[in-house]
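User: I'm curious whether this sequence folds into something compact or stays loose and floppy. Could you predict its structure so I can see for myself?
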Amino acid sequence: MKFLATILSLAFTSASLSSEGIATLPKPDAGGWITLFNGKDLTGWNGDPKVWRVKDGYISGEIEKLVGGNTFLVFKKPFSNYVLEADFILVGKKGNSGIQYRSKQSENGANKWVVKGYQADLGNGCWGKLYEEGGRGALVWGYKDKAPGIKEDDGWNTYRITASGTKLKQEINGAVTIEFEDKDPAKAAREGMIALQYHAPGGFEVRFRNIRIKLLGDK
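Assistant: Here's the prediction. I'll summarize afterward.
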């Protein structure tokens, strides 16, 4: 049964990809929002089926021990300028996770789900931080203790990320955690993938739901 579940998970992950391996987007709603997670399966996403699964309408990332470094669930389509929203729970406030944006995927090596780029961090000691995974590290510290309004008792929180030209903004539950303008012409990213992080060595669960994006014009 476990083997069958793995095969089905891989099928769900690849079912929404075009022949070029790019996810197909649903139509935007009346407000311009495009849903990236359908609440049923991992259509459009690609990641390690040992870590990522769908339970009760949300994406769950969980494994007892993660070998080979951080891993990511990648939405297989690049975006440039947008507002991105996602609800999240870091269960028991244990471990570390984040939302990658304008990121690049490397499919080399044993862990093919490796992503480098901007990360809206979440976890104790780094709530709301802007971190560049695989690059410059911490670009702007958020709240080293905890962001205002983080829900107790494993309640759902909302991350809102705005990437517009060189300007980046991150909010948790309506509170601005960072605003940053990346003026480094050699390292600033203007386009890339969205991905969800699961941090080594594992032993915790992170959940995501209501993942949606509103595209902005060129900046």
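Summary: The CA atoms of residues 100 and 119 lie 4 Å apart. The chain is about 5% helix and 45% strand.
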